[in-house]
Amino acid sequence: MLKYEEVAKHNTRDSCWVIVHGEAYDVTEFLPDHPGGSKIILKYAGKDATEEYDPIHPPGTLEQNLPKERCLGKVDPDTLKDGAAQLQRDKKEVGPSIKEDKIPPMELCLNLYDFEVVAKRVLKPTAWAYYSSGADDEVTMRENSGAFGRIWFRPRILRDVSKIDFSTSILGHKCSMPLYITATALGKLGHPDGEKNLTIAAGKEKIIQMIPTLASCSFDELVDARIDENQVQFFQLYVNSNRAITEKIVRKAEERGVKALFITVDAPQLGRREKDMRMKFDDVGSRVQNDNKDNVDRSQGAARAISSFIDPSLSWDDLNWFRSITRMPIILKGVQTWEDAVMAAELGLNGIVLSNHGGRQLDYARSGIEVLGEVVPKLRERGLFPNPMFQIFVDGGFRRATDILKAVAMGATAVGIGRPFLYAYSSYGWQGVQHAIQLLKAEMEMNMRLLGAPTLKDVVPEMVDTRALYTHTNTVPESSGSQVYEKMSTAIGKAGDAATIADIADKMSKL
Amino acid sequence: MLKYEEVAKHNTRDSCWVIVHGEAYDVTEFLPDHPGGSKIILKYAGKDATEEYDPIHPPGTLEQNLPKERCLGKVDPDTLKDGAAQLQRDKKEVGPSIKEDKIPPMELCLNLYDFEVVAKRVLKPTAWAYYSSGADDEVTMRENSGAFGRIWFRPRILRDVSKIDFSTSILGHKCSMPLYITATALGKLGHPDGEKNLTIAAGKEKIIQMIPTLASCSFDELVDARIDENQVQFFQLYVNSNRAITEKIVRKAEERGVKALFITVDAPQLGRREKDMRMKFDDVGSRVQNDNKDNVDRSQGAARAISSFIDPSLSWDDLNWFRSITRMPIILKGVQTWEDAVMAAELGLNGIVLSNHGGRQLDYARSGIEVLGEVVPKLRERGLFPNPMFQIFVDGGFRRATDILKAVAMGATAVGIGRPFLYAYSSYGWQGVQHAIQLLKAEMEMNMRLLGAPTLKDVVPEMVDTRALYTHTNTVPESSGSQVYEKMSTAIGKAGDAATIADIADKMSKL
Amino acid sequence: MLKYEEVAKHNTRDSCWVIVHGEAYDVTEFLPDHPGGSKIILKYAGKDATEEYDPIHPPGTLEQNLPKERCLGKVDPDTLKDGAAQLQRDKKEVGPSIKEDKIPPMELCLNLYDFEVVAKRVLKPTAWAYYSSGADDEVTMRENSGAFGRIWFRPRILRDVSKIDFSTSILGHKCSMPLYITATALGKLGHPDGEKNLTIAAGKEKIIQMIPTLASCSFDELVDARIDENQVQFFQLYVNSNRAITEKIVRKAEERGVKALFITVDAPQLGRREKDMRMKFDDVGSRVQNDNKDNVDRSQGAARAISSFIDPSLSWDDLNWFRSITRMPIILKGVQTWEDAVMAAELGLNGIVLSNHGGRQLDYARSGIEVLGEVVPKLRERGLFPNPMFQIFVDGGFRRATDILKAVAMGATAVGIGRPFLYAYSSYGWQGVQHAIQLLKAEMEMNMRLLGAPTLKDVVPEMVDTRALYTHTNTVPESSGSQVYEKMSTAIGKAGDAATIADIADKMSKL
Amino acid sequence: MLKYEEVAKHNTRDSCWVIVHGEAYDVTEFLPDHPGGSKIILKYAGKDATEEYDPIHPPGTLEQNLPKERCLGKVDPDTLKDGAAQLQRDKKEVGPSIKEDKIPPMELCLNLYDFEVVAKRVLKPTAWAYYSSGADDEVTMRENSGAFGRIWFRPRILRDVSKIDFSTSILGHKCSMPLYITATALGKLGHPDGEKNLTIAAGKEKIIQMIPTLASCSFDELVDARIDENQVQFFQLYVNSNRAITEKIVRKAEERGVKALFITVDAPQLGRREKDMRMKFDDVGSRVQNDNKDNVDRSQGAARAISSFIDPSLSWDDLNWFRSITRMPIILKGVQTWEDAVMAAELGLNGIVLSNHGGRQLDYARSGIEVLGEVVPKLRERGLFPNPMFQIFVDGGFRRATDILKAVAMGATAVGIGRPFLYAYSSYGWQGVQHAIQLLKAEMEMNMRLLGAPTLKDVVPEMVDTRALYTHTNTVPESSGSQVYEKMSTAIGKAGDAATIADIADKMSKL
């Protein structure tokens, strides 16, 4: 068995060993081919990289990409401990701003925003940056929530609302509410059990989970984590340029009992998310220092690194092929115009998800809920809505049962929620996810009662006023731009001797 | 007579005694049945609970719910004093942020907002939370005031406005202005005299008070508090699942001279108000501590606890029954669409209150004033407006005489104001309420003069421009959501050595 | 001659003497009749009241209101000095936040806002409160400026703009730009020369001044202050309930060469301005102290006190009478709807001022510029515009030449500016007013050049886009209301042990 | 050779010598004629003025304006060093807030905003003020960016986007993207190489540069700086009142290979930019001091001083003359209405730039992108669009590839970017500009992929929703005006003893 001290010697670009899950690997020759750049590996040259490796790579990644002879065998665990301790001292990594034993009790989370507020402090900054970031100036990400602020209710009175039933059926599968857990990547950044937390909570609350292609857990782990055999799961697919791999994945999903295939069509390339990208510069010094060094690694955040396999040439023509390799219903995830919605319906697909990928892809894409307001009337005009064989889903910015009810009133079968459940398990494990779902259910019951709608069928278009939904009156976005403009100066602010006066004036103006 | 020391021994779940109004009660067996949960009682096990008990329970509650034998008799007052002193020391409760002898003189309150600012500091945090909270993200609560900001005046000139008369008649009863005091619950949280403060001020200012079902004072107390026999009162009714109880209440109200019955139709269940709910977690420790304890009591605020009797199956069919048991005019409180307004008018009811329950029930319900703008034209189209036998009332967010005049111009007979009067008596007793009404009257006189309208009949639809009223351009609501998004980082904000630079930059950007 | 010590003894309600301009008066019997309340006089009982008396009362007020025998004669100036020194020590009045010798050089004022920023610090708080205050929540006052933000330019290119001419003619009188100085009250609050500063600057810059009824200077003083005989002045009239007084005033104005009569029609009563009112409570203690005292004087600010003579019964029928007593052109100041504009034009009056009295009267009255957009098309439809015999003026919120050019493009002959000139002379005397006018002229020249409009005739309706002008999307007004709502709490904000965490979190969220 | 000590003696208005580039000049007689005022020269009387002289004056200015005999010859460099050191000590000028060796590494700049944030700290305050300032209240300058916030995307899916091509052709010249570097003045304020930085980066990235009339570098320097002979440059022209000079400039540009002539038509006079103007008062003391001094120099910022030659009488009639002196295509820069766009097209010109001069000329001019939305449909109606011989360009506020794509979708051939490139080279030289262009290209590739548009031809009008673009709902501009209004007071804020309470309350309200 190798000793840690031996591994530690190979800590250069010329001979670079790393330890993952107790085994040492020689990655010297692999360095230039690493999709995430060589620099991130060199950071761990001669060290144990498991902690950083794990959330980004599904089980088996290393084995599939390295020749067997590069695996150098187990490292003596006793020597490893010292190494780990040394590593901790070396890293000085910025950790969460709240220690685990100070996390507020889960019961203090009264709504889905609360989980986000807690997670912001519980997650490591890099994980927070990856989960919470959006495209460009994050205008679309904010708009996703903001759009609900332009839809208002028209509640009815004096209806018998003693019994409220919000159960429904998605693609023929019963579930407890018009909600599914949508696919999100790199689940282990938030919690060692990764997406399994979602599987368990979904099972317990009779909610459907959509398994992501880019999960930290392996596909099998997530299927195996179901609480019983009847638990329904869907699968989200990034299509690989190598169709053979895609075919293998799809066939396996069907074999293992997955009930529907959601093909992502809004991400031919994964987005530039600057909050995430800034995190990669942690160890970059000042300009002067850098001039004497290697080129800075222009790593562009976690997602970019792992998404190079996605096929940007995917087109409408490919859809028949998918129908030839699976009997699962096929749904397009990421439709953003009525024109594409009509095409999908006319092609006989089984549904669409109106989504902008959580505001992480194209900035100034409209919110899913706004697109829903455009899509349904156009489908209806063409006799394509309502249609039990073609269901409409929406995701993006859903945080409240009122948000869900707005979507249902406007014609959605169900809505997808992603980030809030990641935040929930990052702090509280699967129990957090369950608590979040239960909070939504409590809100659903209350709000349907107050709407005068005992069942989802009673949640009709007339119950929402969407006239303002299509009005976008943002001025300078509350993001990058607003940090650039300066408040204007005044006579007082510039008078030669007015430094102190200006201070006083400023304080006065704030009273 | 019992001694306090004896009571103090029964301070566990297995034997739990409490003192209320000088008498001891054994509530051990009642613990699991308490609508507000057992935990809140256990907090006072072996102690005097009068102070917390009083504002939440109308007189007689204890007697009606406990078997007589559980009343253990009077506690020796001398021993009780020591107990009270001990309790004070134990409680360390967070009190108001302003001491009573430092309350600003009432004359400094120049408008209804001022009472709210003062009350925020005079009230205990729990009382403030109960009174001031709204549903979910409090979007509707804020919109209730905000909607008035989208209605502008078209004042006329050169009319003789030497005499201004804003007296009117509500359901046939004269009153000094188009205003009534609407029903609010738990009045003793703000002041030991509770809703009696409203009764006295209403009498003195010739305003009509609507007595609430959930008053802290008993119904009889509020009727008896009238300053003379001619003082008019209305009654607000939450309908009980047990109709016999409801019938008893309604018949009694009529017998005691109440002049109209306002049936609440927007609250089949009382709302989730998170500001209120958060207060209930005061004594909850950190996560670690809690893991070793009983389940946390998921008490959801004061109102939820006391409202379980409300019948969620109440429907249009029940209205004939009400007409069979009373000759009082019947008004529906909580109408929010023109469809329901038309139904009420066609059914021959005597009026409607356009209300969203002060923003405390369904978030994103529209403001009463906006609904008024929708309802009146639809009634007019059908020949149902104007109609002296079917009056329209509005409440929600009224703070200024200009608000009232906007409603009158748009067709309302009168408007209801609730919270501001609670705030007024919380700091200044009934004199505060009277002062608040007098301020409104002063504003009414001034503003009618400036509008060129000597009487309420002269306040016509052409005097308001409501075109913008129906425009909702909120983006991310200024509440939960806006606390979640982060300002974006910049190159300076992340440079390795820029910590101090960023500080300077931030300060600079604020100059 | 009286000695100061003698006067000083009469310092009670039972015997109250005051000194004004070196003469002592016995005002004991006058106390209850003082329009501003007795309390303000008692503050100066036995003292020299000149400084507070002067700006509020035009010369001669005392003589006209007190019986001659109450004038007790001159006070020995030597003894008075000591008294004045004593008074200074007694007063401890809050003064300006900037000392006179630290006022920034006038050249630092680059626009009209600058004068306001400086004046805010140069004026005594009471004077600032009187000048700067608006009605109720000051929504209309802010809207007056804000409305210009909804009008945008459509500038034309490649026109010869080497010579720019913005001179014009108002009611037949030539002036150097489409601007007049509008009437404002109590000019000595800002500067001992009061409105004379305006007269001088207007003369030097060939601008017309409108003399106010409520000037601190007497009418004669302001006419005498003209820099030459050809300087044109207008007169603003508050109509007295005693028409004989009004007739005397009007006839005198015409005799002394005033060229037009602007009758104020938007102020049958002067407004409630709470910022001004709050100043009157300076010496009010806490509640407890007050309970043992006299009733607090509910003085409602300076303007209310001096405006009781205004006739609220003034109506259209009175206008013929005005035409019978003067040959001056008659203009209605304060028209706010097209209906009244049409009536004025059809009646053969000579013009109207679209104004809401600087936002000081009816809150939620629309801005003059918005009303202009409504009035002109309606007059045009009826063949009443353009009409050289019926000119349209606007005031309210004008601060930039672009504001003026927007009004001209929309059909105004000229605009009125008031407060900014008060602010200008408060810091810099008449030179400040001149500088302010010169700044506006420099802006006019630049902006007409950039608009492609060499003369005012070239400033046509097509040069402005006013489509957004009629959109009012304010939500909660940025004034009283916005101070009442609280930011919502979160799980972190309320966790038992999270006090410090919340602090950190708050700081983090601000980075 | 002169010694520095000799020069230093001539430091008064009566005998004023200055040193520029090592030569001494006697400027005594030139003082009153200096377009920027005499004061700024007197500041350097007897001293070396090179540093301040250089960025504002193109090479040769001094030689052309002074008689030869006023050049006194070289100053001994050894003596000059001491003088320079002395000058440094004298100046105490406020420098940048970030030292050069602390500038963040260029790689930290992830978008164009980042360069601005860095430059704000790297530039001297005077340079920052000149570059970043806008007209009046900077409303148009902010709107230029803000307008993009009202245009949203309608992206299409399932299109083959494996290859993205955003190359295009401007006026027949190929370039790598639909972008050119637009003309900006005084480039040496930011970097000693001035506009040459732009030339080099443009060459390397195959982008076209527009050479400005008011460059700090001479025209020849910028042509010579091209990286090869095929590099395309355009020329921006301010037309001189003296047409002979203009003709000379234009002919020279054509001779030296410039490919197009952009005639500025929105600046008959250069704008009042108050941020820039305030900088000129640096050495102005308090009022008292000033009263004893010379008149303050009312210098109005750098640009005003150097622009007096611009001909304000330029008109449509002059355009034929331009066509007679050059065969270069002629484009009008600064068109702001459809009327003028139609005139330009009908006149057979080669294109227009929809621009408001970066918000530096007429405040409340609309953004170029908004004008584009007005112009294209009107041209189309008249059969003037699309037209390969008449291209439409836009500038103002472009910061993101999404901004560029919006303009392309709406009909623009290319867009101009100015300030961001100045900021880029101010911190990082030409490499900064190159990095900025590369960032835009990375964004272009990503965003076209996400839009479903492999080439610029696929970026069609249906891909943008511009319905909200024409809605201007600004209220009080977030600039001068907003600093003038005060938050309203409340009862608590004014209570006699409430000073500390108000403090607490204020802090509470911020939690």
Automatic annotation (TrEMBL), chains A, B, C, D:
This protein's GO CC annotations: mitochondrial intermembrane space
GO MF terms, alphabetically ordered: heme binding; L-lactate dehydrogenase (cytochrome) activity; metal ion binding
Domain of life: Eukaryota
Gene3D superfamilies recorded: Aldolase class I, Cytochrome b5-like heme/steroid binding domain
FMN hydroxy acid dehydrogenase domain span: 104-469
Enzyme Commission no: 1.1.2.3
Pfam families xrefs: Cyt-b5, FMN_dh
Catalytic activity reported: (S)-lactate + 2 Fe(III)-[cytochrome c] = 2 Fe(II)-[cytochrome c] + pyruvate + 2 H(+)
Residue ranges constituting the Cytochrome b5 heme-binding domain according to the UniProt record: 1-76
Cofactors that this protein relies on: heme b; FMN
Principal location: mitochondrion
Subcellular location: Mitochondrion intermembrane space
One BP term from GO: lactate metabolic process
Leading EC class: oxidoreductase
Keywords assigned: Flavoprotein, FMN, Heme, Iron, Metal-binding, Mitochondrion, Oxidoreductase
Description of how the protein assembles with itself and partners: Homotetramer.
Family assignment from sequence similarity: In the C-terminal section; belongs to the FMN-dependent alpha-hydroxy acid dehydrogenase family. In the N-terminal section; belongs to the cytochrome b5 family.
Protein name per Swiss-Prot or TrEMBL: L-lactate dehydrogenase (cytochrome)
Organism: Tilletiaria anomala (strain ATCC 24038 / CBS 436.72 / UBC 951)
Higher taxonomy: Eukaryota, Fungi, Dikarya, Basidiomycota, Ustilaginomycotina
